[in-house]
């Protein structure tokens, strides 16, 4: 895998961990069942990191294919990633030890990490200019 891509994945994963720590602190103080919420948060975050890595791998691979094959490959990988998210949410909903809200927050932590990083970088660039 490309070194630049690996670096970006690591940065997003660091952001996910930071967001999880903030969410964990909030969960401990605000939740009625912090153990289940924290378990869901960790479960969702691990799957989010895996899903983000799978996305990076599939994008890097799809650019090597011709247009039609790349579209089919990308679509099939997207469907696989969404099935994984569906299974994770289903397991979370059925398990009494995992809170589905915590899992959802964990799954969305990738988005929060990327948005947070983008907002911070944009603010820093504006201050420099």
From TrEMBL:
Signal peptide: none annotated. Coiled coil: none annotated. This is ATP synthase subunit I. The keyword Coiled coil does not apply. Keywords: Cell membrane, Membrane, Transmembrane, Transmembrane helix. It is a multi-pass membrane protein. It is found in: Cell membrane. It holds the Pfam family ATP-synt_I. The chain crosses the membrane at residues 12-31, 37-57, 78-94, 100-120. Its main location: membrane. InterPro entries: ATP_synth_I (IPR005598).
């Amino acid at each position: 895998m490309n070194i630049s891509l690996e670096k970006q994945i690591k940065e997003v994963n660091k952001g996910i961990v930071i967001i999880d720590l903030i969410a964990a602190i909030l969960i401990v103080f605000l939740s009625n069942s912090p153990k289940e919420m924290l378990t869901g948060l960790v479960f969702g975050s691990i799957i989010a990191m895996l899903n983000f890595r799978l996305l990076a791998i599939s994008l890097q691979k799809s650019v090597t294919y011709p247009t039609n094959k790349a579209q089919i490959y990308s679509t099939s990988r997207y469907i696989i990633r969404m099935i994984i998210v569906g299974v994770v949410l289903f397991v979370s909903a059925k398990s009494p030890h995992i809170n589905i809200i915590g899992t959802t927050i964990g799954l969305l932590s990738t988005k929060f990490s990327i948005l947070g990083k983008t907002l911070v970088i944009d603010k820093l660039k504006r201050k420099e200019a």
